[in-house]
């Protein structure tokens, strides 16, 4: 009798911990959704105009030359990155 009570208490504790973790996950997802709703829209692309005269979709290559990117003002993520993606390559 005592052994069955000890086992049932263990199962009740595991069930309670599982439900607590599920509740925490649900609350975190609600918090993330509220943060996404309050995000400021991204600004327009600044810089030079795109030159589409040299673009040829028949070749299937993409070239990046001197790319700069940042998430926040003053914090650069990419600095002067240049690379090519050839036809058929996976990125």
Structural notes for this entry:
The model has no long low-confidence stretch (mean pLDDT about 85). The protein is built from one helix and two strands. The protein is an alpha+beta fold. It is elongated. It has a two-stranded antiparallel ribbon with strand order 1-2.
The radius of gyration over CA amounts to: 27 Å
Please tally the helical runs, counting DSSP H or I stretches of 4 or more residues. 1
Broad shape: elongated
Strand order of the largest sheet: 1-2
Tell me, rounded to a whole number, the average pLDDT. Answer: 83
Per DSSP E runs of 2 or more residues, the count of β-strands stands at 2
Please mark out the parts with pLDDT under 50 across 5 or more consecutive residues, or reply none.
none
Q: Helix proportion of residues, in percent?
A: 25-40%
Q: How many angstroms does the end-to-end distance come to?
A: 62 Å
The major pleated sheet works out as:
2 strands, antiparallel
**Structural class of the helices, strands and pairings?**
alpha+beta
Order of helices and strands: HEE
Q: Provide the β-strand percentage band.
A: 15-25%
